[in-house]
Specification:
Number of helices: 2
Strand order of the largest sheet: 1-2
Order of helices and strands: HEEH
Strand content: 5-15%
Radius of gyration: 14 Å
Number of strands: 2
Largest sheet: 2 strands, antiparallel
């Protein structure tokens, strides 16, 4: 989906692993976090606008061919 960008995605279930969520600084759900940034960048809540989320994290989206 993204040209030249690699990322590691980790899914944490806060109900089964509250200690992992706490150590990651997750205070609310749902949360997307970019821990490679300083300070970490987070989006909490509505993820329905995928383009906005991708732009927030600075990943250029690959153009769709029609």
């Amino acid at each position: 989906m993204f040209r030249g960008h690699k990322c590691r995605i980790e899914v944490v279930d806060v109900l089964t692993s509250p200690e992992a969520a706490e150590s990651a600084g997750v205070l609310a759900t749902p949360t997307l976090s970019d821990d490679s940034a300083t300070p970490p960048r987070r989006i909490i809540g509505d993820f329905s606008n995928v383009d906005q989320i991708i732009a927030f994290f600075g990943c250029p989206r690959k153009e769709k061919h029609r």
